[in-house]
Design a protein that fits this description.
mainly beta, elongated, four-stranded mixed β-sheet, 10 strands, Immunoglobulin-like
């Protein structure tokens, strides 16, 4: 679970956001385009996002180092109207984060 705030470079919060997973669960590629559920409150910019991150564990009789010996990450593209898309690399055990998106240049 990841919590945090999304805000523009000027401190304003986007009206809405979308998270799109771009890597698969086993970290074999980044050709995915999977919309993910994210709970978002536009007045504060706060969000809650739940995902899974790959982890490989050592098991057996001689387990000298308990726990995961390899963890992966989730690559998430943050999309918000009026802002450039931003790709985040999310790891396990991340604290509360602040995501700052840049305004999309006007043509």
């Amino acid at each position: 679970m990841l919590t945090g705030e999304v805000r523009g470079a000027d401190g304003a919060h986007p009206a809405s956001i979308e998270f799109v997973r771009i890597n698969d669960g086993m970290l074999l590629g980044t050709k995915q385009n999977i919309p993910e559920y994210v709970l978002y409150e536009s007045s504060t910019g706060r969000f809650v996002y739940y995902t899974s991150v790959f982890a490989a564990y050592s098991i057996g009789r001689d387990q000298s180092e308990p726990g995961p010996y390899q963890t992966g990450s989730a690559q998430i593209r943050v999309e918000a109207d009026g802002y450039e898309h931003l790709t985040l690399q999310l790891f396990d055990e991340m604290p509360d984060v602040v995501v700052t998106v840049s305004p999309r240049p006007e043509n």
